[in-house]
Specification:
This protein has about 240 residues and is an alpha/beta fold. It has one domain: Rossmann fold (3-Layer(aba) Sandwich). It is built from eight helices and seven strands, in the order E-H-E-H-E-H-E-H-E-H-H-E-H-H-E. It has a seven-stranded parallel sheet with strand order 3-2-1-4-5-6-7, sandwiched between helices. Strand 4, helix 4 and strand 5 form a beta-alpha-beta unit. The longest helix has 29 residues.
Length: about 240
């Protein structure tokens, strides 16, 4: 895969899990990566250390993606330093599982704000810069839960389904400006997001009969940022072991 030199990427929720794997893989392509995180500075530093070990280049950028003001300030900080954001990976996400009948409003709102509203907060100012530069790659990390639903995850499934819709709509809005907008939809991946789940029961539902690895999602996401993926737009790429 090939990439333009001196590209700049912003990866939200890059302190661990899928976001960390994507940040590391982008850095391997000689792309400068801004590592967003919220509170776990130790974990984010581990992402930075891994990139440095691989002779990549990155910088930590803590901000709350649920805050419109913080997101705008962070994007402006990057643009003041570099003048560009070529790649945006919207990965930050949480889950707070409950059956809908027992779900409190906070559990609904926090998941929607983190997983979906953050897309608006971060992507809007980034898109303005991409339109100016007439180039961009946006990859949203969604989920099979947003495609097929998952009992006990009405809030999470709704947030990811909404992000799929936003992906397809934005791809139509800006595709003529050499900007692509796509999504990767992981299934069950070996990350902290699976904490508390019955893994044996989950694996029984997966045709591949195993959990996925963060790196497997990262390879798909990074492909979508390459020159070879220039004609891939508005698509949802499943990385789910054959679940759907």
């Amino acid at each position: 895969m090939t990439y333009d030199s001196n590209q700049v990427a912003l990866v939200t929720g890059a302190g661990r899990g899928i976001g960390k794997a994507i940040a590391i893989e982008l850095a391997k392509q000689n792309i400068f990566v801004y590592i967003n995180y919220l509170s776990n500075k130790v974990s984010a530093h581990k992402t930075l250390e891994k990139i440095n070990i691989n002779n990549g280049h990155a910088e930590l950028l803590p901000f709350d993606v649920t805050s419109t003001d913080e997101s705008l300030k962070a994007v402006k900080t990057i643009l003041q330093k570099t003048g560009r954001i070529d790649i945006l990976i919207n990965n930050a996400g949480i889950r707070d599982d409950k059956l809908l009948a027992m779900m409190k409003k906070d559990a609904w709102q926090n998941v929607i704000d983190t997983n979906l509203t953050s897309f608006y907060n971060v992507t809007k100012p980034v898109v303005k810069n991409m339109l100016k530069n007439r180039f961009g790659r946006i990859v949203n990390v969604v989920s099979t839960a947003g495609q097929m639903g998952n009992a006990g995850q009405v809030n999470y499934s709704a947030s990811k389904a909404g992000l799929i819709g936003a992906t397809k709509a934005l791809a139509r809005e800006i595709g003529s400006r050499n900007i692509t907008v796509n999504a990767v939809a992981p299934g069950f991946i070996e990350t902290q997001m699976l904490n508390g789940m019955n893994l044996d029961a989950i694996i029984d539902t997966i045709p591949a009969k195993r959990l996925g690895k963060p790196e497997e999602v990262a390879h798909a996401a990074v492909f979508l940022c390459s020159k070879e993926a220039a004609y891939v737009n508005g698509q949802v790429i499943g990385v789910n072991g054959g679940m759907i």
